[in-house]
Fold this sequence. Notes:
The complex is a heterodimer of chains A (339) and B (325). Chain A is α/β, with parallel strands linked by helices. Chain A is 35% helix and 20% strand. The radius of gyration of chain A is 20 Å and the shape is globular. The termini of chain B are far apart. Chain B is 45% helix and 10% strand. Thiamine diphosphate (TPP) sits at the interface of chains B and A.
Amino acid sequence: MTATEPEAEVRELTYLGAFNEALFQLMREDEDIFIAGEDVGLTGGVFGSFAGLIDEFGERRCVDTPISEQAIVGLGIGAAVSGLRPIVDLMFMDFILVAMDQIANQAAKLKYMFGGNATLPLTITTNGGAGVSAAAQHSQSLEAMLCHVPGLKVVMPSSPADLKGLLVACVREDNPTILVKNKRMFGKRGPVPEALYEIPLGVGNVVREGTDVTVVAYGRMVPESEKAAERLAEEGVSCEIVDPRTVQPLDTDLLVASARKTNRVVVVHEAVRFGGLGAEIAAQIQEEAFDYLDAPVARIAAPFSPIPFSPGLERHYVPNAKRISEGILETLGRPVPGA
Amino acid sequence: MEPTVDILKDLHYRMLRIRLFEEAAGRLFEGNKMPGFLHLYVGQEAVAAGVCVAMRDDDQVSSTHRGHGHLVAKGGDLNKMMAELMGKADGYCNGKGGSMHICDLDLNMLGANGIVGGGTPIAVGAGFANKYKGNDTVSVAFFGDGSTNIGAFHEAINMAAALRLPVLFVCENNEYGEYTRRDKVMAINDVVDRAAGYGIPGVIVDGMDAVAVYEAAVEGLARARRGEGPTFIEAKTYRYYNHHGVQTLGMKYRTDEEVDAWKAKDCIEGFERRVTEAGLISADELAAVRVELEAEVEAAVEFGENSPLPEVSTLLTDVYTEVSR
Lengths: 339, 325
Ligand SMILES: Cc1ncc(C[n+]2csc(CCOP(=O)(O)OP(=O)(O)O)c2C)c(N)n1
Ligand SMILES: [Mg+2]
């Protein structure tokens, strides 16, 4: 947690509960905020993210849209340049691909192409991540694609408290932001301050301090890395876990500082390894901390295939605590059990 | 075209085969034996059966997230279907696809689809290939009312119309897209009104009446085969279960009375009543078909349950076609 968070009453909330609470508080604070997307109104979102909002804010501010991802994002862009502060929802992260023109060619570039003459306070919310047998078109982690496009900011929260604070920052931000919740974290509980607070975009978080190795992880790979770190602690390995929280812009300073301290880095993400953020992070770390590294920066990520449906295959696809521990041990040059 | 008794029997057989398969899948889902999402087709059987009976075997089908019915109606192997839904190695996609990606290319069923609107352009591509090759095969795009609101649908149907491709567009209008009522997301009462905008003929049929669907499909397929381009059929129908899973009643977005009113028009019960009353098929014969199909479905469940999970070694296969030079 960062210093910007006030001392306030802290309760346990679920990941989705924290998201939902932030929306209520934001919409009470600012009339210009509305939500739009498929089933976000009457149904409160297919996962319950938007539950109850329509009861307080009505259909004017909670808009059930047709199944029209391009137009949903376009609606947000047009409304944003017209002075509103839209939050538009794409049910699954995979569906950003349907709306990619509006996201990457329009939202991301408008300000620049117009020589600065446009401001886009637009937030796109969506749900990513594998591990629920949702198969190849409902499980992807496509953040690298988004981070590659100048003009977008991309957020991957790893806890209920971060989700709330980062959503607030996204909505108050005068640039297009994409906030990706992880489907397997919806019910995960954690302490969340009741008051409205902001976690600034581009500021990472040292989730766990350690001395032997830096694990860079975001989204659901943070709790998974924490599990690995717990296990390894019993074997005397001290892991530092650094969560950039925002993957675009990336808190390179924080990652580099940790790399310089521990001299070894393992990057973990759910997305496919090839061309994933791990490659960018590894590159930045070797640029800034080459002389400090005692081992190559390792990447633990999904293999190069679409996401399989069968649980029998999918459990070998998504990185887990076991694979993370093994990767850490390898990077430390320690024997890997069973290897 | 008035269906013959053989055709009536075929319609009944395919509808019931879908129904029994889906009900069994629903039970497995409830018993946690089926991972992921399950979008059941129950209620809409007359549409898949009516269209597929009118089709030739070489005619292709593109489908949706609610796709089991289309594959069963195309003659899908229930064993392989059930195994796929369970994520097993002997499934149609070797466990890689599941419910939303089930397919049988040999039966010209070009796959269910997880992306709303994703399948319709594929049917248009198949139609293009047929015209290109100069054969008289037709492709059929099945799609929901909700999918007609997405860009891919518009682009695909316009292209098919402009290029006069042999494609039949079959809209299964069940009045909802997930939990949102159709009238909230389109300003027309009949989806078929869209056809005029593409310059193609459109008809509305009672989607609870397999014969009506069949007759409309015969027309549309013949038109396409004659090289006169696409036709739009809107079948008014209803899904009995929730968008996903097996709940039927007590939903916030639709009333139980509405569900009951549609069930009173059930495509299978109504069909059985009409054909027996008209003396076209005997009640005994219908009952015998049911017994036969129940056994087939039961065997499929057993097959699925006994099939192993896929080998881990298959995780990275099938990403690309192996280069063979
Ligand atoms: C591009 C895209 N957007 C949203 C979804 C989520 N989704 C799956 S089915 C569905 C409703 C589809 O409605 P309709 O086309 O009427 O088909 P039905 O479910 O009624 O058979 C939605 C919104 C999706 N799969 N793909
Ligand atoms: Mg529908």
